[in-house]
Amino acid sequence: MLTNASLRYHFHPKKGWMNDPNGLCFFGGYYHAFFQHAPDFENPWHQPMAWGHARTKDFLHWEELSVAISAGDTYDAGGVWSGTAIERDGMLWAYYASVDGDGRQTVSLARSADGEHFVKYEGNPIIADYPIDCGRDFRDPAVFEEDGRYYLVMASADVPRGKGVLLLYKSDDGIKWDYQGVMTEYDECKYCECPSLVKAEGGYILSVSVVKKSGEHWFEVLYGDFDGKKFTPKIVSRFQKGPDEYAGQIFRAPDGRDILISWVSGWDYQDREKCIGCLSLPLEVKAEGGVIKAYPVAEVRHLLDEDDTLTDSYVRERFVNGGEEVYIEIVE
Q1: Which of 48, 80, 114, 318 has its CB surrounded by the most CB atoms within 10 Å?
Q2: Which tens digit of pLDDT belongs to each residue from 7-26?
Q3: Domains of the chain
Q4: Which positions are annotated as active-site residues?
Q5: Helix (H, G, I), strand (E, B) or coil at 300
């Protein structure tokens, strides 16, 4: 029987449903992984989503903490959904998709001085309506700072044109946001989800989950240029293969590494009642020689077999083609 209790290296909560990693960051001496969480149910959508929380210093030993941000206010009565976190002025600022009781999606902010206990901003939601370029799918804010200016990428859809879109906002204070327009888009798509954007060596790395009208979905990582309005890709890669990679998020570590963690789900073929999901091993992502490579961070590389495979109870991760391809699967 597949059980979360038997996993050794892949983080999973002690109980309850989990999916997308949220708010990946380094703060207060720890790497933090927040995640979509239903703490009282082993399957999704039986209670409003919250941000679960775990932290580590070595990516080997994870400490699960109390739920970081819970639903309950009018604007997030329907759930505290995916988003990102940044450090600012010695505090952790968490931006999340807030969903009200009618399913309306907005953007809200919660802040923490210690990385554990969050206080919601009294002026939430900080983005209370979606622009004309999209519809009700308006989710998963990805925030980053550059040269004293803040940028926020929203995942959405332009339903009349049949496109998945990433929308861009800009701010001087991280609270009042000005809409800039569509940053990038995908044809014949239902919507986009779970973006992240980080400045990397000589350019920018963008990650995004894409859902086609047909129901096909994938996670991809791109390297390219960002001019403050548009993202122009130079390299596009779907290096994470197999059925169990989705909703990945990339963050910049203090030592300059760009680290990716994604959701290992078993979504398509396992019993959702069993809550078998977990987080992937953290991968260091680089754009080199015209390709995007990802390989387990140094802290966990000693766990790999000679053939660059790690099997952890029921999760197998294989790293092939010199780090240009990652295959994750749930195994019996």
Answers
A1: 80
A2: 999 999 999 999 999 999 99
A3: 17-294 (2.115.10.20)
A4: 20
A5: helix
